[in-house]
Amino acid sequence: MNEEKLAHLLEQVKTGQCGIDEAIADLKRLPAEDIGFACLDHHRTLRTGIPEVVFGENKSAEQICEIFSRMVQRDGAVMATRISVEKAVVVCGKFPDAEYHEAARIVVVKKNEDKISGAPIVVASAGTSDIPVAEEVKVTAETLGCEVQPVYDVGVAGIHRLYNRMDVLRCASVVVVVAGMEGALPSVVAGLIDKPVIAVPTSVGYGAGYGGIAALLGMLNSCAPGIAVVNIDNGFGAACMALLIAKGQSK
Amino acid sequence: MNEEKLAHLLEQVKTGQCGIDEAIADLKRLPAEDIGFACLDHHRTLRTGIPEVVFGENKSAEQICEIFSRMVQRDGAVMATRISVEKAVVVCGKFPDAEYHEAARIVVVKKNEDKISGAPIVVASAGTSDIPVAEEVKVTAETLGCEVQPVYDVGVAGIHRLYNRMDVLRCASVVVVVAGMEGALPSVVAGLIDKPVIAVPTSVGYGAGYGGIAALLGMLNSCAPGIAVVNIDNGFGAACMALLIAKGQSK
Amino acid sequence: MNEEKLAHLLEQVKTGQCGIDEAIADLKRLPAEDIGFACLDHHRTLRTGIPEVVFGENKSAEQICEIFSRMVQRDGAVMATRISVEKAVVVCGKFPDAEYHEAARIVVVKKNEDKISGAPIVVASAGTSDIPVAEEVKVTAETLGCEVQPVYDVGVAGIHRLYNRMDVLRCASVVVVVAGMEGALPSVVAGLIDKPVIAVPTSVGYGAGYGGIAALLGMLNSCAPGIAVVNIDNGFGAACMALLIAKGQSK
Amino acid sequence: MNEEKLAHLLEQVKTGQCGIDEAIADLKRLPAEDIGFACLDHHRTLRTGIPEVVFGENKSAEQICEIFSRMVQRDGAVMATRISVEKAVVVCGKFPDAEYHEAARIVVVKKNEDKISGAPIVVASAGTSDIPVAEEVKVTAETLGCEVQPVYDVGVAGIHRLYNRMDVLRCASVVVVVAGMEGALPSVVAGLIDKPVIAVPTSVGYGAGYGGIAALLGMLNSCAPGIAVVNIDNGFGAACMALLIAKGQSK
Amino acid sequence: MNEEKLAHLLEQVKTGQCGIDEAIADLKRLPAEDIGFACLDHHRTLRTGIPEVVFGENKSAEQICEIFSRMVQRDGAVMATRISVEKAVVVCGKFPDAEYHEAARIVVVKKNEDKISGAPIVVASAGTSDIPVAEEVKVTAETLGCEVQPVYDVGVAGIHRLYNRMDVLRCASVVVVVAGMEGALPSVVAGLIDKPVIAVPTSVGYGAGYGGIAALLGMLNSCAPGIAVVNIDNGFGAACMALLIAKGQSK
Amino acid sequence: MNEEKLAHLLEQVKTGQCGIDEAIADLKRLPAEDIGFACLDHHRTLRTGIPEVVFGENKSAEQICEIFSRMVQRDGAVMATRISVEKAVVVCGKFPDAEYHEAARIVVVKKNEDKISGAPIVVASAGTSDIPVAEEVKVTAETLGCEVQPVYDVGVAGIHRLYNRMDVLRCASVVVVVAGMEGALPSVVAGLIDKPVIAVPTSVGYGAGYGGIAALLGMLNSCAPGIAVVNIDNGFGAACMALLIAKGQSK
Amino acid sequence: MNEEKLAHLLEQVKTGQCGIDEAIADLKRLPAEDIGFACLDHHRTLRTGIPEVVFGENKSAEQICEIFSRMVQRDGAVMATRISVEKAVVVCGKFPDAEYHEAARIVVVKKNEDKISGAPIVVASAGTSDIPVAEEVKVTAETLGCEVQPVYDVGVAGIHRLYNRMDVLRCASVVVVVAGMEGALPSVVAGLIDKPVIAVPTSVGYGAGYGGIAALLGMLNSCAPGIAVVNIDNGFGAACMALLIAKGQSK
Amino acid sequence: MNEEKLAHLLEQVKTGQCGIDEAIADLKRLPAEDIGFACLDHHRTLRTGIPEVVFGENKSAEQICEIFSRMVQRDGAVMATRISVEKAVVVCGKFPDAEYHEAARIVVVKKNEDKISGAPIVVASAGTSDIPVAEEVKVTAETLGCEVQPVYDVGVAGIHRLYNRMDVLRCASVVVVVAGMEGALPSVVAGLIDKPVIAVPTSVGYGAGYGGIAALLGMLNSCAPGIAVVNIDNGFGAACMALLIAKGQSK
């Protein structure tokens, strides 16, 4: 559309219907659309075979359905995070292709998509209570085309559990480590492998855990290099970061 | 420059030296420069008769002199905030036109500039310790072309002092209120006049004042409508906001 | 009333019914009423054609109705913010003239009022979740007599959307920017236009967003001059500040 | 009781039934009871005609009734704070002498008591939302024997309302000032009178008010001397402090 | 002065030189001065025999001397807090009547003053490191006319030290308790006596004491009624509050 | 199991079925299992006669039952903390051997176990509202084999109550002190006895107590040596720490 | 002394020189001294062969020498923590018996003392920067009579270093774990051994470590039971806690 | 070494010199050394051609020289961060091969090393004050073998500067974005490209920037997916994370 408009303008310049000064003035008033081009291109590439993502936390089942209708029509695929069982029932009732991942609280409507080749993303979680966030990582990354290997319940209070899974960790393209409470697991993992570690603090804990601050600060202050951190409970964000890293390796 | 480049491209389109597809491709790769146009225009307007502003806090006298050299050459005017007496001595030694406002900690090198017409900006301060920040507001706004009326030392602990100056406050285009400690003055001022109030918390105080947090939170939670707040000790930012408001009225 | 009382006192002084010392003593005991005069005048001016505003958050539908009854009787107009759908049903049932703005959560009972002339207030919002606060700004400002132009869903993660609306932003009297999460939009807007920007952080987000602190701090620390900030989710306060700025320009 | 025990021991020393060394050993093992004496005396004095106070927030109606039964039996009087209407219905149903102060959320069962003579305690509140806390101050102090004079809704956003009540404030033995949001009222009051001011921050507000922190910090950092502060929403504590001050004056 | 002006106006009204309407207009424009009357009266009373107080923390010795010159000339007395030894040497060199209280960091120039009768203020401190703040309380209150009884180094880690001084505490008009670290002493004191307790948190401590926050929060959350709190290290403020309480009793 | 595997490997080395290089390679790939040995041994020891502990806060009754089934089958014993009455009814319905400690919110299914000899653990609580956490300490420690002596409601606001129980405190192996609000009790206790004190802050309180922060900071900043602190409301953690200390003494 | 006084009083009761009522009154006025007995006894026991401890941080070398003079005279022993090299030179110059432990920043003047028998205290530190705090633990505990085994530089970023020292850790009476940054080491240690772990957060780190908060929160939220925490950098406090635990085992 | 020891043990098992039970016992006591193997291997790989890194902030020039001596001897290479000019002069005086990067505050002694192939790391900085941290990223990554492309001074207040560099950003393997104040740049960058973004908040700013908290929170709460965050001013950590990502792509 914009490209057509631009072509039309240039055509007019070529044919003399539009003077150069006039064309410059027109072009100046349209920079956003020019960027819009780039961004849309970029977005289109990003979106090929990849469902759009809706943050479902504060949206009603009805609102989610409405967004899904538009997105499925446009892209043939859509994905929503933070969806309770109650909302999922409604959404899946309306969209027969929708699949609900209960542990991850994610609903996905997807067409077939190209897989990203290469080593899998490993998702490690410290405790059983961190699994919902770990599953958000896993389902998001899988939906976006990555292979994911889960390594759950390997927290530092019983560190031998982690050692039993070192071979899996060492073969990752990138490791996402999900931990609440004191959030110490990423430091230990990063001290043992030479892969980038994405640390996800969770709000698991109570008292001076302050809804994930203790874990967040612990991860930011890690004594082990090779760690970067996302927001508390932000499994989706960690999956996106991991995806971009894995994609870089698959090229 | 960019405009020339653009004209050249369009000329080539017109003469057929450059195909339309090729031109579209070129234009797509240059959106930033298009925006650059707009921004530069905008900046040029902004800068007419207005000195550039340098944040001097963490810069050495030498660094400030170097920046001044380039800016004076380009614009004939420059202004720097957060300049200690020691640095000012060095800077004013090198730039004979430079004027140092000690209380405001500002150095100004300026050409004559157009004044903004209309009602003055009033700068009110709660205590004598808040005056350096109030002076930063005053000297910044005056340098940028506004008339400023100071109303100092009218804090809420002796509120009759404020009442004695109500006539000045009522004639303002906008009132900047500078206060530390509990930061209560903006609420009282905003409850008495119908002008926009820009509240500047200062780091004056100790203990549970936490370097200005108490004043900042107080101002954000004001029970009187018509107040907006800038960062702690940010006299420069308040002056810029006030200037934009005053300019709107002078048009 | 007070003026009558004062006239009566002076009459008594004139006629010798009241001695000068006695009159001085009386006058000293009444300063509040003198100020009361001014304040009432001032308030009367403020209130002309403008509904009183009730903060509805912690009030029951019954309490709101009771306040409305008194205010409508006195002023013929009233407005209440933070009204849930449930409360709105009750209130609108009792006051047939009342209009409920659901997105803004505002109920308005208003007489016709004089419009403020001049450029519109522009309200920009970063995400769709910020729209309720943006609507609080819009409905408040419109109710108070301003023209408002909304520019929604133009957050920095897809900045081309903002560029598409630059012409609207550039024609504003003042721009209110509503954003949650990292609250970066006001900096970008203020870097592109020469109008005052009022930044409204919202509690949209989770984890280390801490109910709007991240956005609030981001806005207070903006690297772009010409921004002032109101409390988290305080759409009403931003509208009042914007109104006072717009009124200054309309005179 | 303890005194009897002590008398009995000394009697035995006197009669030689108990040796001095033995008595010393006994006395050493009983210091707590000695202090207990003092404390009980002190407590008894405190309690004369004064109901015991129960913090009702986290107690069920049943638990409150059970405590009331024991206290009424022992002291003939009892008082409980933070009692919801629902709990009050249950409690007043069981204790026909109980009186519920709904605004203050206090239930009182009391015998007649001696009044504290002298100037009244004045309780000032900034907004209507602060009244529940102000009423907790008022009902507590009245129940404990003080005369209380309320001065409500005199916040700094419309400071003429405060001036209209200066005569009441000036006659106080002590002024309790209750305010939420920015908590500026105590500073203004303390700047106008020469009585001790007890400042009570309330959790009224939202956003960066952080449940009363803004008001608390504002009050702690007051620029006016003669203010001391109690916990957020702690009307009961303020009333106790005021009572002790008023009692000192009545002696 | 103002009173003369007012008398003159009324005289003119009486003689008909000034019409009533004209007089009303005049009076309306002067409310601040009317309040000024009251405030000045009030201030004059406050200041009788009482030195003005200068906060010396961020002022140079020269600035302090300049303020002293003006104040001594006007009032014959002055007092400054937070004065280092270095500044005191300069100030006392210029003002031979000045007396420096090193522990309290206070300089006083005073004429003889009327003493406040009645029971003394007791100042209790927890540790030896809290003594500077305790001395600020003591010297301030003594300078303002109160008798003060110090009870130092009676912290809760060796609570028998407090018991040895109970007789002194019980005879106080009001007790100021100064404590850093966990700030537990005020709770224990308030649990043992029936006098108002003013708690002063100090910045003594390290680590999670956060410059006095731990003590401040502890005191605000005291389980013992009859306590109110001032800012961290605010010995001066505590002394003013204590003075107002003691004065109420001496009347 | 692992040991068998290891023995088998070594047997193969001995008989030449497995070469030394091959055995080294095998052993290197199994370090975690080696540690697993140690840990499992260690765990087995820890678990002898001691029920496993489930944190029940965010688990449904169904989830708890499922975990119980597996654990009872494996260990014959299990224990779960933070169990509401509603969940307890379900769990105890399914497990007839289960015992619910309502005040402590703990469910225990246990075989008979060896008692830890020596002096009892003393659990002191400041107020009645702290008792649920104190009971979590008590029931946990008893379930794990320790004798526990409760000393409840001995807070610093009435310190004579503590003195009456000094003999109990002095005979402890370790004292767990549970307190909310200002959390001053551990300091007083540690100043009176020569036993290790484990301090447990509780979330009891309101306003500036911030859900236990005031108590936590108070305890961390205690002026009395011999105190260490656990998380807010972490009765279970305090009991484990106390158990390890008591076990050290019983050997 | 007090005991003599008490004996004298009882003697007078016995001989009739003092009536029983009179004696009761006397005894009531002396409870503090009775407790004083106990406390002094208790203190004497505590202090036998143990140097008094002076917190040297904010004291001058002169003040420390003065305190040392009195203490050495009374007890023959004294110890001071947080002593810089500069102060140590002065103090050791005056007290030839004084020994300075530079890494621990402790000066000790001690007579021979009885050793506490039993297993040693193990002090583990995460990084080399944590060693000063670890040394404060070590020197304090050794000075107070305990054997101490250091295990330094075994942080979680290279966890094999910890495994190499497991035999030392397993033989401890109690383990003090000193760590800054994310403070993860105590969790790992407590997951591997069955001894009580005292965690000491240090202020080592920068940025979001906030002077030790990250480590402190991490330790409080540890997922491993059997940990209790002391204040940031509080090596002395950890040593005292460890000493009391070790003493319990040696009895 | 350890492998030899292990081989020796197995040899002894093979020859019967060591029984199987004895060997198992030995092996159990050595797991750490087994892990040590793995870790050492892993470390050796990591360290090939890569200098060790010393955090120089709190170390004296002498301490740094001492560490350098050992490391250069062992590895032939070493690198230290946070080195002031003063320290650098001393270190470079002793190590003629050492090179000081003043803006980055890094000293490097390095042998030739293998370069990591593939797309460069791009380091973008918002303001000129952020350049020291950006340079720490650049010099670290270059020293560790990566090509780095700097894009400085492209903050959001003049966003056209960023657009001019889009081609560089789009060709990165990974983009490190360094920003202080409100920290908005990472969001904008991540919204424009499909590469992983590592966000580095800096302590640049003042007032409510709180030494980098505003930037840190802003980055954690970014509305753009594909961002992970490191500690404030942690250029070194960001470079390590970027290196691991770039290495993954170069394989």
Care to describe what's here?
The structure is a homooctamer of 251-residue chains. By secondary structure, chain A is an alpha/beta fold. Chain A contains eleven helices and nine strands. In chain A, the strands form two sheets. Chain A has a five-stranded parallel β-sheet. In chain A, strands 1-2-4-3 form a four-stranded mixed β-sheet, with helices on both faces. In chain A, helix 4 (61-75) packs across helix 5 (85-94) and helix 6 packs across helix 11 (235-250). Chain A is globular. Residues 29-50 of chain A have low confidence and may be disordered. The interface between A and H is large, with 41 and 40 residues.
Describe the secondary structure blueprint for this structure.
8 copies of one chain form a homooctamer.
Chain A: H1 2-14, H2 20-29, H3 31-47, E1 52-55, H4 61-75, E2 78-81, H5 85-94, E3 99-101, E4 106-109, E5 121-125, H6 131-143, E6 148-151, H7 160-163, H8 166-170, E7 174-179, H9 185-190, E8 197-201, H10 213-220, E9 227-229, H11 235-250
Parallel strand pairs in A: 1-2, 5-6, 5-7, 7-8, 8-9
Antiparallel strand pairs in A: 2-4, 3-4
Helix pairs in contact in A: 4-5, 6-11
Quick structural gist:
8 copies of one chain form a homooctamer. With 251 residues, chain A is of the alpha/beta class. Helix content of chain A is 47%, strand content 15%.
> What string, H for helix and E for strand, traces the elements of chain A in order?
HHHEHEHEEEHEHHEHEHEH
Radius of gyration of chain A from CA coordinates = 22 Å
Q: Low-confidence stretches of chain A at least 5 residues in length (pLDDT < 50)?
A: 29-50
**Could you tell me the strand content of chain A as a percent range?**
15-25%
Task: Tell me the number of strands of chain A.
Answer: 9
